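ugh finaly. both done.
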Amino acid sequence: MNRNDPEPERYYDWMLWKLRQEEHQVQEMTTEEMYKLEIAEMQKTIHYLQTRVKELNDAVLQLQEQKDR
């Protein structure tokens, strides 16, 4: 929390203040935390690609079966 930015009383002022506080917290992320987030995103991408390869392989096998009939 930034001491130079006290918490306001009015609702909309408070919402803007809270947004500033959250942005400040995001900027204070450590290198390790950034790496963890990046790795998690990469793992999601890898999982999607593995699933997509399986779907495409199944489609190829189905087309081969239709061709062989």
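ok and the 2nd:
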Amino acid sequence: MPALLAEEGNDDDSQQHQASSSSRAPPVAKMPSKLAQNLLKDFAWGGMSAQKLQEICQCSVQDLKVLRKVMADEGLPLPQKTPVEKDQEAVASIGVGGQYSNKCYSDLMKKVEGNISLPQPYRTIMKFAKLGDQVQEMLLPHEMFSAFFQYKATWKKVVVPDQSLLLKFWKAQELHPQWKGHPVESLTNAQLKMVVPISLHGDEVPVTGIGKQWSRKMVNFSWHSLISTTASVQDSQFFIWALFDKAGLNGDEETEEGYNTLWKFFEILAWSLDSLFKGTYPTHDVHGHE
């Protein structure tokens, strides 16, 4: 499996392999493909389709083959395939080498999903106008928070870059009018050093027909660590869920017995945030079921 798409091997095994090699390869020969890494990042952010990613890598693979042929024609020794070549070939192979564009996405996900460390989205059924019951997926704060904590480098980058910032933050809030009577007020300094302040953000933005009278908006909900001072907004603002305007029920529909789609989401979100505040991972879902 290409180095970019597989877990790193054991360091001891790697060292033994190098020691037994007649000629040690320079470190650059073990580096993954920067091109493939950047293309995958663009794909993950929605900036590039799997089909375009495959096309670019296929062109690069063809260029590398030409380079090898030139070296062979010049009588130069050909090195073994590097992780750079293997990474690009792996991506270029999706969709049977681009022959079946409709297969590119699923093939790519099969190659990279083993390295995805985020939890599976929380799934629930919600009611919508005209659409009825629909399965919805949410990246709930307590699940994401727990996942980040398992990976210390990520935790330090996007949640708590410096443990000492926690107490400083809470001490700075003591003169705030809302501090009085707040549950955090009764915590000791030792406890405050373990409490991470987060913000919840909701923003409605046009997503279709932008600039037109018939434009449609979507409200997006996300959260952010208030002491994450080193990471970019793109890296540290975490998406939860989104809702198209007029797609949800607002409680006025007689046939749905006052069901409100947005308030149903808030019920689930409140359950997630309450779990975070208690500091315990829930054993039951929002409805009390295991």
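summary for the 2nd one i guess: Confidence is low (pLDDT under 50) at residues 1-23.
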